Amino acid sequence: MKALVYHGPGRPSWDDVDDPTVQDPGDAIVRVDTTTICGTDLHILKGDVPEVTPGTILGHEAVATVVETGSEVRTVRPGDRVLVSCISACGRCSYCRQAAYGQCLGGGGWILGHLVNGAQAEYLRVPFADLSTHPLPETLDPKDAVLLSDIFPTAYEVGVHNGGVRPGDTVVIVGAGPIGLAAVATARLLSPGRIIVFDPAKDRLEAARALGADVIGDPHENPEALVADLTGGLGAEVTIEAVGLAETFELCARLVRAGGRVANVGVHGGPATLHLEDLWIRNITITTGLVDTHSTHTLLSLLADGRLPASDLVTHTFPLDQIERAYQVFADPGTTGALKVALTTRPTNNGELIPTGG
Question: What is the pLDDT of residue 346?
Answer without folding.
Answer: 63
